[in-house]
Write a structure and sequence with these properties.
It contains 19 helices and 23 strands. It is of the alpha/beta class and 585 residues long. Strands 1-2-3-4-5-6-7-9 form an eight-stranded parallel beta barrel, surrounded by six helices. It has an eight-stranded parallel beta barrel with strand order 11-12-13-14-15-16-17-23. Strands 18-21-20-19 form a four-stranded antiparallel beta sheet. α1 runs parallel beside α9 and α2 runs parallel beside α3. The radius of gyration is 24 Å and the shape is globular. The relative contact order is 0.12. The model has no long low-confidence stretch (mean pLDDT 93).
């Protein structure tokens, strides 16, 4: 039977979770956690929380699930030292790859759980996580049950969300709050722009209903999931206690929720009801909803006192974390930074004309094209410089098609691939691999870690200023021009705001309440990427960035006419600023 993992944003919520029968509890301190606006726990409260959980035989997981900047590493490791000595948690939940490696080296006795912010979408991630010393993976909320089962079968402990708020964007892949509001979701400061109204027929096209898998507990148990997770560190102690008690009863009785129990959960909190769309692979308009006045009224009228659960049995001793195994960089499979300098022409929307490519092929260091288009016959003259951009995530039912496309690309003569996850490196073992912006590289430690996986280049996160120390074995890449990708979604936003014709290259426009227009580009299976309303421009800083080691400046084109592309390329050879409106983010 799965363990029940409950949230605690305050000491009272922690006590409510224990009383309601949680097997495990996750909470954060005053820094380095993805719910920085919760009440959270100062150091004295963390020590008290550790004692409470041990006395109740409840596991305690501490969140360090944000990206860490270089200047913060000493403080972060001092915090881990305090947790290890004084709090004695059962596990730390970590997002940042560089921080994870440092913790494994300096605190080998501490168990690490891979945060959902690490964008864990494939069972193929499991081997990489095991080798890094993780004992559990918190899977992305958007995974269907077939992919969850495949991950469980790898033998790594598996944790899935079963209840609470879900984002329309993939976890760890949303930059909207950061770019348009300077409040980073990867830093625990998300302002939830997805819950705000937009213009058009559907006023809330990004607001997804809360997840509820209470009607799938038997399935989840049969699959063999280790732990079921309730979202809600920003919620009240009453919410935590009530929701935990319902799932406690369902797990103990090994059954799915009754209609009455679902109605009770809706009364506690919902946004126009619940959705199980991701789990059952029904990605429809019915997944969307907002918190209505009727929802609020139900909560206000609710009178429910969670029954106090029986004291839990003694927990089993946790296994010693495995030894960390990191591969050695294979220089024969990489290109040196000296061979990778100049402009990367990247096309994520409209494909370039033959005339445009013919004109600029000599000056381009690389040309990035989506995998499904890169082996068109007309691209034959440019195949030596083409890098195939893999999809941001590859689900189980998509894997064979991606493998087929990669074979077509290789047979065509393409030898470069741009990837968004470590497991994709194995899919592309015959290619030179380039790390995409989705790796969220914001510190030197993460960059050093990725060097071991034989990346030829790594793109720095748009959440950095691009100023990294020189000396990387990988070429450093940075977006010099382009609309920053703000969200990657498994739901079709284009369909939700109007008409979607099911085409692979379907375009749409999201207009927010201020009138700003955000282009949306779709891919197969109705996945979408939402781009910023304004392009970022940093090409006038090219010389300064070059001194910091950035050798590749990416021009990310989406919906620009070729006249604008020509203008950008011409500007890249000067220090002039463009006359059109732009942003630095």
């Amino acid at each position: 039977m799965p363990l029940i993992l409950a949230p605690a944003g305050s000491m009272q919520a922690l006590k409510s979770a224990i009383d309601a029968g949680a097997d495990e509890i996750y909470l954060g301190g005053s820094a380095f956690n993805a719910r920085i606006n919760a009440a959270n726990f100062d150091n004295n409260a963390l020590i008290q929380a550790g004692k409470l959980c041990r006395n109740a035989n409840v596991g305690l997981h501490i969140t360090l699930n944000t990206l860490i900047y270089d200047k913060e590493f000493s403080d972060a490791l001092a915090y881990v030292d305090f947790l290890s000595e004084k709090v004695k948690p059962n596990a730390l939940i970590v997002q940042d790859l560089g921080l994870a490696k440092e913790i494994r080296e300096k605190f080998p006795h501490l168990a690490l759980h891979a945060s959902t912010q690490m964008r864990i979408h494939s069972f193929a991630d499991a081997e990489f996580l095991k080798n890094l010393g993780f004992t559990r993976a918190v899977l992305a909320r958007e995974l269907p049950k077939e992919d969850i089962k495949a991950f469980v079968d790898t033998g790594l402990e598996t944790e899935i969300f079963v209840h609470g708020a879900i984002c329309i964007s993939e976890s760890g892949g949303c930059l909207m709050s950061s770019v348009i509001g300077n409040r980073s979701g990867n830093r625990g400061e998300c302002a939830q722009p997805c819950r705000l109204p937009c213009k058009g027929k559907n006023k809330f096209p990004l607001s997804v209903k809360d997840m509820c898998l209470a009607d799938h507990i038997k399935e989840i148990s049969d699959i063999g999931v280790t732990s079921i997770k309730i979202e809600g560190r920003m919620k009240s102690p009453e919410y935590v206690g009530a929701v935990t008690s319902v799932y406690r009863r369902l797990v103990d009785e090994n059954r799915n929720a009754t209609k009455k129990e679902i109605e009770l959960l809706e009364s506690i909190f919902s946004r126009s009801g619940f959705t199980d769309g991701y789990f059952v692979s029904k990605i429809t308009k019915e997944m969307f909803g907002i918190r209505t006045e009727e929802d609020k009224r139900k909560t206000e009228q609710l009178k429910f006192t969670p029954p106090k659960a029986e004291k839990r049995a003694n927990r089993e001793e946790q296994a010693v974390p495995p030894q960390m195994i990191i591969p050695q960089r294979d220089e024969e499979k990489t290109l040196s930074p000296a061979k990778q300098k100049g402009l990367v022409l990247r096309f994520e929307g409209k494909l370039p004309s033959d005339e445009f490519l013919k004109k600029h092929i000599e000056s381009a260091a690389r040309i990035d094209l989506p995998l499904r288009y890169c082996y068109q016959k007309r691209f034959t003259p440019y195949k030596d410089k083409i890098s195939a951009i893999l999809p941001r995530s590859v689900f189980l039912n998509e894997l064979e098609e991606v493998k087929k496309q990669l074979k077509s690309a290789f047979d065509f003569g393409i030898r470069h691939a741009t990837i968004s996850a470590i497991y994709q490196a194995d899919l592309c073992k015959n290619f030179y691999i380039h790390g995409d912006y989705a790796f969220n590289v914001v510190n030197r430690k993460t960059l050093e870690f990725l060097e071991n996986f034989s990346f030829s280049s790594v793109m720095l996160s748009p959440e950095t200023d691009g100023r990294f120390p020189k000396g990387s074995k990988c070429a450093l890449e940075y977006i010099g021009y382009g609309r920053t990708p703000l969200m990657y979604t498994r739901t079709c936003v284009i369909r939700n705001i109007g008409e979607c014709f099911g085409k692979e290259r379907c375009f749409g426009i999201l207009t927010d309440r201020t009138g700003a227009k955000f282009p949306i580009i779709s891919a197969p299976n109705h996945t979408n990427t939402i781009y910023n309303s304004l392009p970022a421009y940093r090409l006038d800083k090219k010389a300064e960035l070059k001194k910091c080691g950035v050798g590749l400046m990416t021009l990310l084109f989406t919906d620009e006419p070729e006249a604008r592309m020509e203008e950008i390329i011409a500007l890249s050879q000067t220090k002039e600023k463009p006359k059109f409106e732009y942003t630095r983010r």
